[in-house]
Design brief:
By secondary structure, the chain is α+β, with helices and mostly antiparallel strands. Helix content is about 20%, strand content about 40%. The strands form four sheets. The chain has a six-stranded antiparallel sheet with strand order 8-7-18-15-10-11, with no helix packed on it. It has a six-stranded antiparallel sheet with strand order 14-13-12-9-16-17, with no helix packed on it. The longest helix is centred in the first third of the chain and has 16 residues, at about 15-30. The N and C termini lie far apart (about 45 Å). About 40% of the residues are buried.
Length: about 270
């Protein structure tokens, strides 16, 4: 089913590159065509294998989501939420996948744009979350929140997280947000250290459009996308967020169990 595979490594990581070489040699023995150039992957690959970790998958998902190419993650350390195949098992897992034994899962991304005076300043995709947050000053920022054009509230807080179900186990979780199963069609809003404790996490339908307008700050504030890119904003600037039109397709090994990963990563059932 997968005849042309693109392998993506973690930049400037010797272990990632060595692991990719071993995997590449194995795939060539199986008669699989390999591509490594980004443009070649986009045009011809029918599967992408990311050798790195969750961060590498976040980047690859944003890059290739519109190409509709499934992604498999090989994790170099402890198994991640997204990269759930160990180096020790990767040959067996890849063999099974090439034989058609795998689980395919659809995940949503966020389409984000920063606006000023009705003009778009910057556009980004986010797989986990987009965050509006204060800079280094201890003073909170103040912003207005709108959903589908309707005014929701005005908040003073350290910031606001707009998260996908995938990102619900990342920054949003540490800020008191709920865990959302990846299959649900939702967007969640999580305030970061709000001044008023009545501001609780808010789960919206996945087709909702969120607008956050900065109305008070000591200086600039920052918008961060998956913690991997950022953009400075001024008073009066707005962040507009909606679900991206296309979905990323993650490939998991047979027997994949989302709740097993959650139990492991969050140490459920372990003695404290």
């Amino acid at each position: 089913m997968f005849n042309t595979i693109g392998i993506i490594t973690k930049r400037e990581d010797i272990t990632s590159e060595e692991t990719a070489r071993e995997l590449g040699a194995f795939l060539k023995e199986l008669g699989v065509l390999l591509v490594e150039d980004e443009k070649a992957i986009e045009k011809s690959a029918d599967l992408i294998i990311v050798v790195g970790g969750d961060g590498s998958i976040l980047s690859s998902a944003r890059t290739y989501v519109d190409s509709n190419i499934p992604i498999l993650g090989i994790n170099l350390g402890r198994l991640g939420f997204l990269a759930d195949v160990s180096v020790e098992s990767m040959m067996t897992v890849v063999s099974d996948i090439l034989s058609g034994e795998y689980i395919k899962e659809e995940r949503a991304l966020l389409s984000c744009q920063v606006e000023r005076d009705g003009k778009i300043l910057s556009q980004h995709l986010a797989f986990n979350e987009v965050v509006v947050h204060r800079n280094e000053t201890p003073r909170m920022i103040e912003f207005e929140l709108f959903v589908d054009g309707d005014f929701v509230n005005k908040q003073r807080a350290d910031g606001m997280i707009v998260t996908t179900p995938t990102g619900s186990t990342a920054y949003a979780l540490s800020s008191g947000g709920p865990i959302m199963h990846p299959s649900v069609n939702t967007i969640c809003l999580v305030s970061i250290s709000p001044h008023t404790m009545s501001h609780r996490p808010f789960i919206l339908h996945g087709e909702s459009e969120v607008l956050i307008s900065l109305i008070d700050s000591d200086d600039k504030a920052t918008v961060s996308f998956d913690g991997q890119a950022s953009f400075s904003i001024l008073l009066g600037d707005s962040l507009r967020v909606r679900q991206h039109d296309n979905f990323i397709h993650l490939i998991h090994p047979k027997g994949y169990d989302y709740f097993k990963i959650i139990r492991s990563k969050l140490h459920w059932g372990h003695k404290v």
